[in-house]
Amino acid sequence: MTQPLAFVFPGQGSQKVGMGRAVYESSPNARRTFEEANDVLGYPLSEVCFAGPAERLDDTATAQPAILTTSVAVLEALAERTAALGRRITEGLDPRGVAALPADLRPSFVAGHSLGEFTALVAAGVLTFADALRLVAERGRLAATKGARGAMAAIVGLSATEVEEVIREVAPDGRTVVANDNGPAQVTIAGDADSVEGVMEALRRRGAKRIVPLRISGPFHFPPMGRIGGELRQFMDGLRFREPVVPVVANINGLPHASAETIPDALVRHLAQRVEWLRSVKFMREGGASTFVEIGAGQVVSGLVKRIVDARTLAVSDPPSIADLVAKLRGAS
User: Is there a common fold for 5-146+225-329 and 151-217?
Assistant: First the structure.
């Protein structure tokens, strides 16, 4: 008997040159996913994913659609292997999402870490892949041209409460905030570059085990990034948001989106509000999910899950890991 599943999707920072190449070369549906991305965006995103340069892949405007596309391509490769469908589960005007997977591989929840929430919306059939691509491309464009400037850093070894105490002591002016509550002892901060630098120094003195500046072009989940919210909301008015086929746990509160009509406003708030990843994972675990499957490049998100709850974690990014996932979930190993 299979364990109840949650599918989780990575966000910015998971990008790496070469991502997605293996599923592109082995899965016709994954290949069509990358080809659709190239057509929608008007440039060869697949080439940047597969060959770089890393500097371009790290740029927010490219990284965001690249991460989304890679995760969707891996999901399509999984579906192709298990569902024997003639067309992609994210294709066309009426996407079927994970409801098209066999019952034993269908998740009870989907969620994405930061940018990964947009992938979760595709997986749940809320947005077509093409519309999600256009949305993250516009989000990245607005952030790069009109959004906040600054820095982000991952803090290991301190809780969100402890980090907030330090921020209140050394940066009480709101120029640095906790952007992601990633687990009991892993937090991301965001803010103006000089303020973030000062907070990092103070956190080292407080006893942070590790501090890692993040590869970002602008600080997300930071109140000044909310200045692009109006234009992003206007762009979303031209998109169709469907009711999710499976609950999508929202970053902003760690609870499922109430309905399709509430999602655009939540995505606007997502620009400026904290990612409540710890709360999201606990909600899914308490809701019965005992196996968390990360779909996309890397294993960052499954690593975070391990630090939050007692659950099995699996990660899929290429054909061997897809085969291993199916075997494990179906009890072959």
Answer: no
pLDDT digits (tens, 9 = 90+) for 80-112: 998 766 678 888 777 788 988 998 899 999 999
Q: Is 270 considered catalytic here?
A: no
Q: Which fold has domain 5-146+225-329?
A: Malonyl-Coenzyme A Acyl Carrier Protein; domain 2 (3.40.366)
Per the CB < 8 A criterion, the answer to whether 32 and 325 are in contact is no
Mean pLDDT of 228-256: 97
- Record the tokens describing residue 5, joined without a space: 């599943």
Amino acid at 222: F
Give dist(CA 179, CA 40) in Å, integer. Answer: 30
User: Catalytic: which of 221, 257, 270, 280?
Assistant: 221
Domain ranges, ordered by start, for the chain = 5-146+225-329, 151-217
Give the pLDDT of residue 1. 42
User: Taking 50 as the threshold, does the pLDDT of residue 227 lie above it?
Assistant: yes
Q: Name the residue among 17, 6, 85, 53 with its Cα closest to residue 305.
A: 6
What's the token pair of residue 202? 């103070």
Sign of the torsion formed by the C-alpha atoms of 156, 161, 162 and 166: positive
Q: What's the CATH number for 151-217?
A: 3.30.70.250
Contacts of 189 (CB under 8 A, 6+ apart): 152, 153, 155, 163, 167, 176, 177, 178, 179, 196, 199, 200
- Model confidence over 107-132: pLDDT tens digits? 999 999 999 999 999 999 999 999 99
Tokens of 17: 């040159």
- pTM score > 0.90 for this model? yes
Task: Say yes or no to pLDDT of 2 above 70.
Answer: no
26 is catalytic: no
Annotated catalytic residue: which of 14, 27, 71, 114? 114
State how far Cα 200 lies from the chain centre: 25
Instruction: Characterize 312-323 residue by residue with b for buried, 16 or more Cβ atoms within 10 angstroms of its Cβ, and e for exposed.
Output: bbbbbbbbebbe
Confidence of residue 217 (pLDDT cuts 50, 70, 90): confident
